[in-house]
Input
Amino acid sequence: MGLHGLPFLEQEARGLLTRLGRLQPFALQMPMVPAASVTPRAQAAMETHMSEGKQRLNRLVHKYLRWLQTPAGATATPEEAQRRFTILRLRFNVVLTQFDIFSDVLAQRSQHATGVWTAGLDSVSADALSPVAPYVELPPVVCYLDRGVGAAIRRARTRLPGGDLNPVAIIRIPRERMVGTGIASSLVHEVGHQAAALLDLVNPLRQELVLRQHSGPERDAWRMWERWISEIVADFWSVSMLGIAATTGLFAVVSLPRAFVFRIGLNDPHPFPWIRVKLSCAMGNALYPHAQWSELADAWERMYPVTTLPVEQLRQLRMLERHMPRFVDLLTAFRPGVLGSRTLGAILPLGERRPENLRALYDTWSRTPGSAEKAAPTLAFAVLGQARADGKLQPEQESTRLADLLTTWALSSSLETSSGCARQLLVNARRTPAPQFQQPFVLGEPYAIH
Output
């Protein structure tokens, strides 16, 4: 049949195998300094996932080639053979898509400075997820930079293109936020989505909010919170880990033209920007009572005054504002099943993030160089973010300090990994019995090892 029948499809299938074989493990392709590397656990998860996907596709292609040689395949119509091959090619493109997803994470690790900073963000992400560690197994988290003003997450254990489960959490960070405390606001917000999934927060909270919509004058407020709950939980996680740095970082993200700031919509899972900033301030005041939150909320309202809004729109805004304290209390006191009798607020490091504590730490760190590097990454971001909000830390100083911290955390993680590998090698060496030679070793005489 020449190139218009089964021989052509056989060649195409063999071509798929050839191109599949050229997808080398990431470890053989990605040049980077050790400090810029992802953690061994994340690397192993991605390599294992891709290897298994390649093996599955390899088996399917060989199965197809064997089918072509059977009587059924040899007598099949070109339409049937083409239909089967098309499925293989679609699966091949799925493998390539998944490869590119992980490649996006790893490729920029070879960029000077940026690669190391990104590895430092991995450390911040791991610390931001740490409150969940006593209750569920944590997935590896890896970060990469991309264009845009907002961050995003591809959560672990969700479906990749093609239906496979994602083995790692992948967080995309806006490049325009490197390097300032605002980067932590976006990053920890995305980590909050992963934490919410691990703790199964969103669906039970949504059910609770639905129950409260049945009657009463506040049902419209409960309905709006219920629609936006997934993004609100992530904002709550960010404020709880970063203090005022979360809210000032949010300021930068949602500082948009006025029409967008006041656009109320229930089709978007995000609260509209004006109320989102106000809610972030209300969360901060509930978790860490202080006058700074009302000052920040007032500053936001002066930037986007509501005096010219239509009456009905203004009524909705004020209704949501009045309702915020009750809603935030619900979040803080919520008891997800995985936590048993503990509330959500009980597992978060709220005591450390009080403004007075953050200010005291900044003063101490200013007198004792090297102290910030020893702190938990999210605490360091919270301290510097508070100092920036207080006017004690200028943007130029902030960027330099954070770049140094990210480099230190990346290097520390790399050294811990190397040290762990060295310890494991030593343990393995001690467990391995000494080789037994069939001939005694005598200096100057030949010996054989069998």
